[in-house]
Design brief:
Distance between the termini of chain B: 43 Å
Structural class of chain A: alpha/beta
Distance between the termini of chain A: 36 Å
Largest sheet of chain B: 8 strands, mixed
Strand order of the largest sheet of chain A: 6-7-8-3-9-10-12-11
Largest sheet of chain A: 8 strands, mixed
Order of helices and strands of chain B: EEEHEEEHEHHHHHEHEHEEHHHEEH
Radius of gyration of chain B: 21 Å
Oligomer: heterodimer
Amino acid sequence: MTAPAPLVDVQDLVKHYPGERSWLGLGRPRAAVRAVDGVSFTIPAGTTLGLVGESGSGKTTVARTLLRLTEPSSGSFRLDGVDVFSLAAGPLRRLRRRIQIVFQDPYSSLNPRMTVRQTLREPLAIHDLAPKPQRDARVGALLDEVGLDPELADRYPHELSGGQRQRVGIARALSVEPAFLVCDEPVSALDVSVQAQVLNLLADLQQKRRLTYLFIAHDLAVVKHIADQVAVMYLGRIVERAEAARVYEQPRHPYTRSLLSAVPVPDPAATAQRIVLPGDVPSPAHPPSGCAFHPRCPHPKKNERCRTERPALREIAPGHVAACHFAEQPI
Amino acid sequence: MTEPLLRIRDLRTYFVTDRGSGTARAVDGVSLDLYPGETLGVVGESGCGKTVLSLSILRLVPEPPGHIRPGSLIEFEGRNLLTLAPRDLRAVRGNRIAMIFQEPMTSLNPVLTIGDQVAEAAIVHQRLSRAAARSRAIDLLRQVGIPEPEERTDHYPHQLSGGMRQRVMIAMALICHPQILIADEPTTALDVTIQAQILELLERLQRELGMAVLLITHDLGVVAGTTDRVVVMYAGQVVETASTRELFARPQHPYTEGLMESIPRLDRPRARLHSIPGSVPAATAWPPGCRFHPRCPYAWDKCRTEEPPLLEAGTAGHTARCWLVAEPARRREEAAR
């Protein structure tokens, strides 16, 4: 028996920003920024891939290229078998119904001059999803589904709390009945108590509508509560990817281990040693040679090879890939 | 018992809002003590008043629209900072009590070198010569972990990463050896690996310099790892105070309890998260009675009408603003249901 084809299939995704010439085009060209440098993953229908990384890792660029809000430099993205990157403008617009995005800051992604009702009616009109007289009923049903009082329909974004705005952002994404939802840091701007509400809502919606999520976040603890698979990015590349439980329990890349140990645990009695990485995330315009993580790497076996040879992202156990020369040996 | 370094009593900082929606009672009767050498965490969600509290201490609240109500007291070295003459206040600010903020890029001057900014306080407060202040600044930059401080001192803020800028902010705050450092969300804008570096740095500096730290944060994980005692704020008030260990072991206020259960945790298996229903009310219209009652799973009639005071909750120094402390049987009944 072969496994069913995944809903989302991304292969060797690359996004390079060419270096610009400084000084009005007279100076030397700057180095190209390799924001995303060969990223591959698949997501089975109805499941969640958590994409984790620090600022500058390229995770948001991945999100934007999948929606073609930014054109990729190369690579492929198939959604249910359809090659998204080769679609012309017309078919792409129709396909956007199937892929939607929820942004980090619902305040800047909602139109301040539109009421909640107008915001939610617009996609229904653009995609001609409901006859005019039925649209208000659809708006009411959507608000109900995301846990908002339908009486809020005539409010403007500034009259809503942060959590309510994020629920409107989710309702707008759901209005066109997508199959694949890209969530780019959807709870990072929210307070803890509200963050939990929105995470639970996303989990409920996934179950009810069999949605597939790419869930992008910098917080590994948040991702743990929603992801089936986890991919960790560093400087434009995936350095480790596996079933969520394996990433949390048996991480094999030293960067994943450091990230996990750096998350503050809300327990004063916790004794786990924090691994404090030295230095900053390097610029993607000047990635270090060899393994891009080597200048900050705390691995006891780090050697000359790490400085010169880039470790391949390879399978070290079924479904578990890692890009470290020592990934085969547990630390 | 040692005397507190800073005593805050019944602090009320209000804001008059335009368009007639009333007065926002951002900080509404806060009392707390900060002892020498300790790290006190002030934790709460947005809108709870924690930042206005920290700004009030150094009288950095913009007036108008803000004003600190008469009757409020912030006592430091035997004097009420709220009634101090501007000249005397300047001698405290940035000298005896220093502050660091969440966003170092907006708190640093983009057109001055970092060395000049770090040295400024030493020139103003300690009347060091430019040369002496410069070499002191270089020492501090080294102490906060800036590589090659002799060169970096002539750099501008935009040439540094976010983590390095926060280190510069810390150097600026510490150059006069303050007795109190107020740190308002010092790591919130930073990546988690950089956050770990900055927290470690603050711990080390506190040990070396023996100052007291008031750490304002929304992150209970940061609180658990770095503080000795915690004050939990909700709706402009202190709702619970305890030693950090005691607070995490036996939270008494339902808000503290709910907050702790809402945190996604790495050390727990994946499960549905607990959440607190609703959201923080507006500061112009705090609910009557207990301000948390509309979101509280235990609330009964008394909570809707009578505002609870901070009640002693068992061990020394543990207080909670909740009627459950006086009627613990109700908690057990609710749990049994």
